[in-house]
Structure formats: structure tokens, C-alpha cells
Design a protein that fits this description.
With 276 residues, the chain is α/β, with parallel strands linked by helices. The protein has 7 helices and 7 strands, in the order αααββββαβαβααβ. It has a 7-stranded mixed β-sheet with strand order 3-2-1-4-5-7-6, sandwiched between helices. The chain is globular and about 60 Å long.
């Protein structure tokens, strides 16, 4: 995941803090996504309960198989989507120097940089992939403009962002983007042919919230809170399982409301006549 510019972190310096030293303390961090090929059974088990991951995977499967040429994965993390690319595609991963603070291991095949200007020449890539990163960027407009810069004329951006998601990797979580906000951002950067699809629906959102609540109840901050939190979690377990099953059915049958999705999947193009 990409870390934002340092000045954003400095905004928290004069705010009331918890013992952990941040304005809002994170109860548990997201688990880094490993490539499916590392352990397919574990990956599919996680997709069963992690609906954000499942919907990102479903979106990317539809698009990555068609990628050809050079593909830049920005905020690559553990490079979980590298295996989805077709044979012959050249994968390039890049992430921030301090990605370890986001729970990521360092890898020899990934380039690490300061999180500001990408260390590549203009027009270097046929595709740019950026998954669940934009909410952690202090200046999304400049960031998206830089993604466009490294795309060749006619190149494609593949982007996913969360909408209904808890604060994560605090304090480096700066915003959520509606489809209208995304269109405005991408238009401002000069992208064309912007296409946005919702990931998930309101039923999946409720299931996802219940799963997060269950995790929090089973892992209270103070041990004596388990005297009530575990009991509440056990009572909520059937409700959570019911909504989780309903969410998978709603995703399979394309049901539920799209006005309250888990997130969005985006494709956008750089003009073929654009030399910038």
C-alpha cells in the first residue's frame, strides 16, 4: 500500500491521542493479501468471508486476462494479482519505502520509492493497476495524474477503491469516493472513457459490517470485556452467517441495491493522441 506525504501525518500532531499515539486507534489491521497461488484453499476461504476481497477479485478477473505488454502495479504490496496476468505480460511492481508499516513484506521484484513521483519515464506502461490504494493517498488528484503520466497513449488504468469500509491503516486513511467523485477526479486528470461498476451491494455491506463487528467482539481491548462481548458475539453469529449467505446469493444473482456498494471498480483510458 502507498503511504501518503509526511505532512498529512503531521496534521495529527496537535490532536488528542490514544495510548497508541494516533487520533483514532485501529483495533486490528487488514491482513495483507497473498497471491492465490501461494495457497489456493486459504485464498478461497478468505474470499468466502472477506467480501471486499471477493469483489475486487471478481472485477480484476474480468480485466487482467486481456492485459498485454507492460503492466505497472502501483501499491503492489504482496503482488497478489500477478498470477492473473496472461503469459507474456511483463509485470512491474512498485510500492512505498515504508510499505512494511502496512503489513507488507519486502520483495526483490518490487521497486520501492518515496511515495511521491513514480520512478518511471512518461509513457512507459500499457496498463496501470492500482487496487485499494487511493484512500491512503493525501493528494489523489496529483497521484492519479502521475498514474496517467506513466501510461502510454491509449493505455488503460484499472482502479479499485472501497466505499463502505471501516477506517484502516490509521491515520493514513483519508477519504472515500463515490462514482461521481471518481468521474470528477479522473476527468480533471485528463482520462477518457471512464467506466465505473459497483462492487457488491447493500446486503454485502451489512454482512461485511457484521463480520467486522464479530471480530471486534471476539478480540476485546481489555480481557474482562470478553465477559459480555463473547456472549453478544455468540448471539449475533447466526445473524452474521445468514447475511453472509444472503450476500453471496445476492452477488451471484446480481441482486441488491447498488446505491450502497462495498466499493467500485474503474477502467479509464489515456488518449491515443496524447503525447504527455
Amino acid at each position: 500500500m502507498l503511504l501518503p506525504d509526511k505532512w498529512m501525518s503531521d496534521q495529527y500532531a496537535d490532536r488528542p491521542t490514544t495510548n497508541e499515539g494516533t487520533a483514532v486507534s485501529e483495533e486490528f489491521q487488514p491482513i495483507a493479501i497473498r497471491p492465490p497461488g501461494d495457497n489456493r484453499w486459504l485464498f478461497w476461504l478468505r474470499c468466502l468471508v472477506d467480501l471486499q476481497l471477493l469483489t475486487v477479485f471478481r472485477f480484476l478477473v474480468l480485466h487482467l486476462d486481456a492485459c498485454r505488454g507492460r503492466i505497472l502495479d502501483v501499491g503492489a504490496g504482496e503482488s497478489p494479482w500477478r498470477d492473473l496476468l496472461p503469459a507474456g505480460a511483463e509485470y512491474v511492481g512498485v510500492d512505498a519505502d515504508l510499505s512494511g508499516e502496512f503489513g507488507m513484506r519486502r520483495h526483490a521484484h518490487i521497486t520501492y520509492y518515496d511515495g511521491k513521483r513514480l520512478p518511471y519515464e512518461d509513457g512507459s506502461f500499457d496498463y496501470v493497476l492500482c487496487t485499494e490504494v487511493l484512500e491512503h493517498v493525501a493528494d489523489p488528484l496529483s497521484f492519479l495524474a502521475d498514474l496517467r503520466r506513466v501510461l502510454r497513449p491509449g493505455g488503460t488504468l484499472l482502479l479499485t477503491v472501497p466505499w463502505s469500509a471501516r477506517l484502516h491503516h490509521v491515520p493514513h486513511d483519508y477519504g472515500r469516493f463515490t462514482r461521481y467523485g471518481l468521474v470528477q477526479l479522473l476527468d480533471s486528470c485528463g482520462f477518457l472513457g471512464v467506466a465505473i461498476v459497483e462492487r457488491g451491494n447493500d446486503i454485502a455491506v451489512i454482512a461485511n459490517k457484521l463480520i467486522v463487528l464479530m471480530m471486534r467482539l471476539f478480540r476485546p481491548r481489555r480481557w474482562h470485556h470478553c465477559l459480555w462481548s463473547w456472549g453478544l458475539a455468540i448471539m449475533l453469529a447466526p445473524v452474521m452467517l445468514g447475511f453472509l449467505g444472503a450476500a453471496h446469493l445476492a452477488l451471484f444473482f446480481n441482486a441488491g441495491s447498488r446505491l450502497d456498494p462495498l466499493g467500485y471498480g474503474v477502467t479509464a483510458l489515456k488518449s491515443r493522441t496524447d503525447g504527455r
